[in-house]
Structure formats: structure tokens, C-alpha cells
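USER: Fancy drafting a protein?

ASSISTANT:
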Amino acid sequence: MVDRVFADMELASLYDKLNAWGPDDDFYLGLVMEAEAVLDVGCGTGRLLRAAREAGHRGRLTGLDPAAAMLVQARRAEPTGEWVLGDLTTHGWDGAFDLVVMTGHAFQELLGDEDVRGCLRGVRRALADGGRFAFETRNPAARVWERWTPEKVHEIPDGDGGLVQVWHDAEPAPVGDRLGFTETYAGARWDRPLVCRSTLRFLGTDALDGFLGEAGLTVAERYGDWRRGPLTPAGPEIITVARAAS
């Protein structure tokens, strides 16, 4: 069995190479540049906040992540940044931010109702009145998991002259609104493929809006793609910008 700490450090060091900057990053960067104080929940390697600083943001930029390996990468790239280990149940900020973001489909890793409620209570507490919370989930109606099959292998440069192969293998269908899958990495740096097992929760808009409302958040904008197109049944994303009630 692969040591979990070793695997986390290996994947964290490769994260930005394996996840190229894309339209989702542009979407969130635009929101960050409009805000004075920003909290990035699940900030990972800190790429979004680092890009904002490089683009001229001069306000407060705080990254929060439960994975120590990710924050090691964030601190290496930006030693002066505000990087916090933990989550919204272990750290609280009272009205300190006018924008909270949760990118990379991290919201789907909240598997239980109380996990969702705890996160959203933390978001609301961190936001000033009128502040915004932006996040995305995959649209369950698009059934994206049907395309997560082992024969679809992606090859990505590892930054050291080699390639990393990545593929997914999803369960045939969700159980309720939860779907299990594996993500496998293979390359010269590993003696054998590195297999990571995960579960995601696929919530529709009604469920999302119910949880948001309980936390004192109301939907201000909603999109179905990163070009700000409308949400449709076949649209890949449910992109939500919610506002904190006064």
C-alpha cells in the first residue's frame, strides 16, 4: 500500500501541472479582483490567490485548506501569504471578508448534511453583511460520471521531462446523491500506479438552495458554464454566487 503522506506530498507537488489554468480560474479571479478581502476555502496550492496578487490585488487574501501538503506548496510559492491549515469548523472569522470562494468542485466533498451545514455556517460567519460566496458543483443531470472510464487516459507533462498518465473509474451510478470513483496516476516517479479513492456528492439546485437559505445566504447569480451561460439540464456545472443576508 502506498503511504498516504507520501502520496499527498507527491500529488500536491504535481497539482498545478496536472490541473492547468482554465476558464473556471478566470471566472474566480475576476471575482477576487473585485473584492477587498477574500477567503479561499480549500485553497490547495494557493494558485488563485497567488494569481490575484500578481495581477495587482492589494487587499487581504487568505487561503484555508485541511491538507498540510497543499499548504507546503502554497508557502513555497508565496512565503508571505496568509495560509491557514484547517477548515471552517476549526477556524472562524466574524464578518472579515466580502468574498468567500470554494473552487475545484471542493463543495462536492461535503458528504453529509451536517458537513454542508457546518461549512455554510462558517461561510456566513466569515462574510460581512452583503458579502458574496461563490462555488460550483457538477450538475447531476449532466451525468458526467458516465465519462469517467479507465480507457480515457490523459497524459500530462510532469515538469521533469516525463509524463503522468491519469484515468478515472466511476461506479455505474450514484447511490442516492453520492458517487464513488477512483483516480489513478502512473508515471516514472512511482513504482506502481497510485490509486486514490474518493466519493463526491451531487446536489441539485433545490437541495443547494435549501442549505444556503438555512445558513442565511441567498442566490444572487447562477450559471451553467464558465462563460456565464444559463443553467440548463445538460449544462456541466451549477455555478452559484450567493449573497449574505443583512
Residues 1-6 have pLDDT under 50 and may be disordered. The radius of gyration is 18 Å. The chain has six helices and eleven strands. The chain has two domains: 4-139+202-244, 142-200.
